[in-house]
Amino acid sequence: MIKTLVQHGNSAALIIDKPILELLGVNLETPLKITTDGKSLVISLLPSTNYEAGFEAAMQHINNKHAQVLRKLAE
Questions:
Q1: pTM higher than 0.85, yes or no?
Q2: Which stretches of the chain drop beneath a pLDDT of 70?
């Protein structure tokens, strides 16, 4: 896919097509990291910072599924 930059105020913008955004799970609020090696531009998704919510959900699932075994191990 070949893209060109468009004028956006005093800056230039790169328009990313909706199917690509959907494939990557990116929306307007998604933080992106932009890096370069001097020849290429790399746009990457930042790792999720919502680790605590995922950890809590996983612990709740384990506690619910293995409650009896965990109680016996705690004795």
A1: no
A2: 48-52
Which residues is 13 bridged to in the sheet? 6
DSSP 8-state assignment for residue 55: H
CB environment 5-19: b (16+ within 10 A), e (fewer): eeeeeeeeeeeeeee
Q: How far apart are the first and last CA of the chain?
A: 62
Report residue 24 as tokens: 């990557």
Q: What is the pLDDT of residue 2?
A: 92
What are residue 63's phi and psi, to 5 degrees?
A: -60, -40
Walk me through the domains of the chain, giving residue ranges and CATH numbers.
6-74 (2.10.260)
Dihedral of CA atoms 59, 61, 67, 73 in degrees, nearest 10, equals: -40
